[in-house]
Design goal:
By secondary structure, this protein is mainly α. It has two domains: about 40 residues; about 240 residues, MetI-like fold (Orthogonal Bundle), CATH 1.10.3720. Pfam families: BPD_transp_1 (PF00528). Belongs to the binding-protein-dependent transport system permease family. CysTW subfamily. Keywords: Cell membrane, Membrane, Transmembrane, Transmembrane helix, Transport.
């Protein structure tokens, strides 16, 4: 058997294994989703969405947790987006290519893969204890902003790299400054990729539980947060609390809350896919 034939057989074998593994994963995911829908679809209703937490499963709702999750998404975006995009623009458009730049790029990429519980410990020490924000919406939003910041920086740089160099050169040839070129030409051309990365990063932040548990987010909060300094609950924490209860009825509540959280996540991912498609259509 020649080396070429052997390589072809190995390549075909890897493809078959990959297809089988992907099919098995999709099957398991489909079974999991069907089980969740079967267990929780009956609890989805207006009273469940508007209801407050309760010791009685038939009265319990996700109103406070849903509003807390909304607060987290908004604050995380407000804190992370300006810093992440500005850092990405500086590193890609203004930063000098050298040893320190390469080291910084590697560290940012590595930070994107750090486990979320580590960011929770950082948020506990810095925001909860040192800044004395307590288990507030602001502390949680700041912690999750740190979590998605490396992702935003990396996706911003990749979106800027995808903009043709000729667009910058044409702008410079017409007498525009570097900042005018970035603001009026490069950023609009890269906006689709930047927003795609932002939405995907927020979709990750929505489902994070470990950082919220570490900073002490409560599972039972009988009121909706009215300011960034208020205590709050969130859907992942509420789901974790209900699953840990011994009563079987709380399992159905957790399944219904998982459906709501999945709908939010799928909506964000769908928006990211749509923006990415539209952005690619606009690229020359």
């Amino acid at each position: 058997m020649t080396s070429t034939t052997r390589n072809r057989l190995l390549d075909r074998g890897f493809r078959v294994v990959g297809v089988l593994a992907t099919g098995a994963g999709l099957l398991l995911l489909a079974l999991f989703l069907l089980d969740i829908v079967h267990a929780g679809a009956g609890r989805l209703s207006g009273p469940f969405l508007r209801g407050l937490p309760s010791r009685f499963p038939e009265r319990a709702g996700i109103y406070t947790a849903l509003l807390g999750t909304t607060w987290i998404i908004v604050l995380t975006a407000l804190l992370a987006v300006p810093v992440g995009i500005a850092a990405g623009v500086y590193l890609e458009e203004y930063g000098h290519k050298g040893r320190w730049a390469a080291l910084l790029e590697v560290n940012i990429t590595n930070l994107a893969g750090v486990p979320s519980v580590i960011y929770g410990l950082l948020g506990l020490e810095v925001f909860v204890r040192f800044l004395r924000l307590g288990s507030s919406v602001l502390a949680a939003g700041s912690t999750l902003a740190l979590l998605i910041l490396p992702i935003l920086i990396v996706t911003t740089r990749e979106a800027l790299k995808a903009v043709p160099r000729t667009l910058r050169e044409a702008s410079f040839a017409l007498g525009a400054t570097r900042w005018q070129t970035i603001w009026h030409q490069v950023l609009p051309a890269a906006a689709g990729g930047i927003f795609t990365g932002l939405i995907l990063a927020l979709a990750r932040a929505v489902g994070e539980t470990a950082p919220l548990l570490v900073i002490g987010v409560l599972a039972y909060v009988p009121f909706a947060p009215a300011s960034p300094l208020d205590e709050f609950s969130a859907l992942p924490v509420q789901i974790f609390n209900w699953i840990s209860r011994p009563q079987k009825a709380f399992g159905a509540n957790a399944a219904a809350a998982i459906i709501v959280l999945l709908l939010i996540t799928f909506s964000l991912n769908g928006a990211a896919i749509y923006l990415r498609y539209r952005w690619r259509q606009r690229l020359p």
